[in-house]
Amino acid sequence: MTGFLFAIMTAVFFPGVIIRVKSVLSGRKGPGILQPWYNIVLLLRKNSVLSTTSGMVFRVAPAIYLGTVLCAMALLPFPGRPSFFGLTGDFILLAFLLALGKFMFILGALDTGSSFEGMGANREALYSLLAEPAFFILFGTLALLTGHGSLQEIFNNLPLNGNNALIIGFIAVYLLVQITMIENSRMPVDDPKTHLELTMVHEVMILDHSGFDLALIQIGTVLKFSLYGGLIANFLVPASMSFLFQAGLFFAIQAGFAALIGFLESFRARKKMAKNPQFIVILITFKMIR
Amino acid sequence: MVQSLFLVPVILSFFILITPSRMRFYYVLALVTFIAVLSSIPACLVLFSHRAPITWNLTEIPLGSLRITIDGISSFFILVMNFAMLSGVLYSRGYLDPYARTKSPAQFALHYFSYTWLYLSMLGVLILRDGLPFLIAWELMAVSSFMLILFEAEKRDTLKTAVNYLVQMHIGLVLLVIAFLLCEADTGKMSFDALALYFSRHSNTGLFFLFFAGFAMKAGFIPFHTWLPTAHPAAPSHISALMSGVMIKMGIYGILRVLTSVQTGFYTIGVIILAVSLASGLAAIMMAIVRHDMKRILAYSSIENIGIIGTGIGLGTMGLGMHSPALVLLGFAGAFLHILNHSLFKSLLFLSTGSVYKAYHTRDIEELGGIVHKMPKTALAFLTGAMAISGLPPLNGFISEFLIYLGLISGLSAGNVYTSVILMLAIIALSLVGGLAIFCFTRLFGIVFLGVPRKEVHQEIKEADPGMLFPQYLLMFAILAIGLFPIAFFIPVAGMVSTVFHTAFITDMASTGIVLSKIAWVNILLVILVGLIYFLRQSVLNNRTVEYGPTWGCGYTAGTPRQQYTGTSYANNFAELAQPVLNTHDDFVPIREEEIFPAKRMFRNLPADAIKGVVGRLTDLSMTALKKLARLQTGNIQHYILYAFLFILGVFILLYLKLI
Q1: Residue of chain A whose alpha carbon sits nearest to that of B409
Q2: How far, in Å, CA of B571 to CA of B585, rounded?
Q3: Shortest CB distance from B519 goes to which of A93, A128, A211?
Q4: ipTM of predicted assembly, 2 dp
Q5: Residues B579, B523 share a domain
């Protein structure tokens, strides 16, 4: 349960930090840390415009998307403490819950009958199908190393001594960061700030959502980010520390992670669309070498 | 008393041919229900109270005696089949209705007669243990399904497909006959029970894989799958549902039945089954993505699901070899549950596809679109099936796939390094299959049911009638029930696996039970959460002004339905990525430079079954060889006498040299 609450708390400042870091690095002052949430609240209060082409699927998709992300967050442990549902193989459940969200999200985009959104849907489907094995290999290897099958036990029993541990830790964190970037449609694969429909992936899929629906999706996206951030923090925060230290370290890592994303996005060019599959496949092979 | 009960359905089935056409459907429905009830009683007894197998010896029948045994595996398959058979017959009425104008009552009678006999023969396959009766039932199953495919025999393609199907089934039959004969030559008996004796004396892998090849022909493992993607689309929809949902599982049944007799070599057998299954799964779902015919996509996805079932079986078999009860439990329970699940969601998908076909007269996804507005209930049924088949929570497909994943992960550290590597590769392959399934079914549902129609339809489109929707509701209910209450289905299956494979795993069963009940809670939580959020959205929007407008067109307002994303364009980026495997090619004439006013053009992406090509090359080679041999057939009587003379001479010389 602690993990869930901490991830929610992280979500409050997470997107703000990313935007702030990006602004500062590009020489602007940038909005306040809470600005993304003000935007969401604004959206929640706005009226909606719905496409006449769209039907039921379009209307339920945001609710299902947010629901799956919340459910997946309930599976997030906190270092040394079990998650709300501490079950063996919970990372499989987590991956499939997020997949359900993506499934409905893709269908919601296709429901509008727009070719832009079809394009985005199709790209999203391809990238997530390529990124899914990466996630499974990562946690499969960790399960093999620790001999345990649930997230909490895996994180508790990580080998902490020796050179191997350092290498494993480094590679695992690197990969987790990259998977997070792909799954959340961030820079090397997708650019959240792009202005042309043809080059968008995630953004183009929400073109027709407005008002409350759009807010639901944005909340879901922010929470999903902090969910992955929580996984990374779980990986790095030792289980044996006192709770206060852990909490401090947890937030520090999250803030650092958000800053890292802002940093990466400022200095990293977005890849050519056609190169994206290659990039993801390279990640997978990298993991297999390990 | 009991003995005569077995004959009653057989005799009653012949009355289908003489019942008046008004009454025929009800008669068949009653008969199928009767058989279902009759067979469910012993099956439930064996499965739910974990009794010893029930055996009857039928002595007073024309051809000597017949031994019938119903054990755990048979009961499980019988129950799965009964549900599918009932939903199929319920659906058939509405689906076959338009054919009443073009088909004679005799053809309908023959269709329902074959339907009943497909049912009876599959029951026979499941309860007969002796070689010859089993093979007769197996053959009856092939013939009756052949008759069912032939319903639209006036179409040339259907005829060709059906004959192709019949021929391939007989290649499988030959392999099975050879396997049984090998067993008889050694043990003097031709039955599944004698196999244990054979296996205890000889190396196990050879004969097992002979059986495996024979049964794989039915199950559709690649490279034995070539009949499947053509036969499913050719048959009427409720028949496709049965063939995919139940009949190909008879191949799985056969493999499992032989597996129970195997004595040694489990590890090797398991690894090979695992490899073949995952290769089948991956190749099939990749080929499904680039197809354009709804039913053909579903047929390929059947092969993929057979691959997932096979993965579970392979894992369980490896577990038998490694003496790891957890792997046996998770592998086999996952496989059995996936058999049940696949029969449910694949039936549902085929039935709803049938409704679309009935309304639109086409299954080409490039001509469909926007059906969700015209047939919302059918669309909901298809969506449920698509979500379940992609293995998404909270539906049933997730439960069985989760068990298999859990088995693979707990097996990672259970054996030596090689096991870890094999299972790690299996996890990668299975997760790729999962991702590809999501790609495939978002494409299928999204293109066919969402957006706007890609082609004008002139007939009036109506929602499928209640008679056709009712079985689909039943299937949807079962799919959701397994997803939300998996434990109720896991316990009997696990108990059955324990008895059949002589493995005790009480602690593993308890821990898996806990995991499943937690998953059930997550699923229930998910349903409640989504319901709450959606309710919140509705109540908020009710107080607001909601405007309606066209879809965002980036400033371009004259868009036509033809500009929508199509099935081909959706699959395009994947098809390019997988080009080396898929071997697709474009049918398109590029615009030449001197063409100032380009003529109208068509673009089509034509997929090819790469493996079918290899098989085709083999048959071509053998055909050329046989054609050369055919020169011997001159039609000249003198030549034939010469052959006979040469033959006798040859025998004489060989005898003289004491070579024979």
Answers
A1: A140
A2: 13
A3: A93
A4: 0.93
A5: yes
